[in-house]
Amino acid sequence: MWQTKPHYRIPNTNERLSIERYDQMVTSLCNTKCSLMIGSDMNMDYMKVHTNKNASDILNVFFTSGVLPTVKRPTRITHTRSTAIDNLYVKYDEYDNIDSRIILSDISDHFPIITCMGRRDRTVGRTSLVFNHRPIDSIQIDNLSEALRSTIWEGVPGNGCVSDSYDNFINHFTKILAENAPIKRTIIPHRSIIREPWITPSLIKSSRKCELLYRKSVGKPRDSESFMRYMNYRNTYKRIKRHAKNIYYEDIIMIFGKLGRYLIVLLVKLTIDLPTLTPLW
Asked: Are strands 2-8 and 35-41 parallel, antiparallel or unpaired?
């Protein structure tokens, strides 16, 4: 059984008092005899563990109880410094493998972190989208129409039973459809799956490039070439993505605009034509 506990220490609060509270919390959680995971933003920098007594003491609090930190690299990087203030702490018995990762992303001023535990016999890749569909274009429609016209339908009905005649017709039609527009199996790799309807393959490619430029700009000064290149590309990418989203919804509004106006007029008319009802109270 697992027990999880998120914890956050507000910056500029009393560090010694926080260490005492961490000690009490960790001791209490360890007494439950459960596997334990604590996610914490302590605002105490493990990068200074050899020079700062409070950072060293808080680390010893976890070590003393057998709770191990899983992240050993900075999780917050600015243009002037880097700090290791976020961590996932675990205490477990049934797993012999642990794997932690820091996700380089500009979603926040702190990098997201992830920890996986267990025995991994093989590396499992992300699942691709696999489906069967029947692609039909104008040429296939013409071929299908010609095949249906040239079919001798007199021999299709069965022995006079309606159900048999229907089954024979459907089987014959399905055979003609399969010959002129066969079903194809399509595989879309995970990285190419479009999650939003306005996200085009070009925007997916631009998103990957934006992520690559961000990785190269992490920790660089604001006036550096790599950071300026990332900022310019990110702003352009966001502007194009917003434009694509607006165009997508504008097209939908144009298509259903007349229908929407018709429904509004109809609802107003129905509302006006309703008889006056006597209140119940």
From this structure: parallel
CA–CA distance, 240 with 236 (Å, rounded to integer): 6
DSSP string, 190-213: GGG--SSTT--HHHHHHHHHHHHH
Residue 187, in any domain of the structure: no
Domain extent at residue 39: 2-117
Do 72 and 101 meet the contact criterion of CB atoms below 8 Å apart? no
pLDDT tens digit sequence for 198-230: 888 888 889 889 988 988 888 778 888 988 999
The structural domain count of the chain equals: 3
Q: Which pTM was predicted? A: 0.45
In a domain, 27, yes or no: yes
CA 135 to chain CA centroid, Å, is: 29
Rounded-to-integer distance, Cα 38 and Cα 91, Å? 9
Residue in this structure with the two tokens 């502007």, named with its chain if needed: 239
109 with 153, same domain? no
CA angle 220, 224, 227 (to 5 degrees): 65
Residue 166 domain-assigned (yes or no): yes
**Rounded Cα distance, 173 and 148, in Å:** 8
Closest CA to 40 of 61, 219, 97: 61
Beta-ladder partners of 3: 36
CA distance linking residue 19 with residue 259, whole number of Å: 64
Query: Do 82 and 165 reside in the same domain of the chain?
Result: no
CATH for 54: 3.60.10.10
Are the CB atoms for 74 and 82 separated by under 8 Å?
yes
The last residue of a domain, from among 127, 147, 182: 182
For 7-49, the pLDDT digits (tens) are 778 888 888 888 888 888 888 888 777 778 888 888 888 888 8
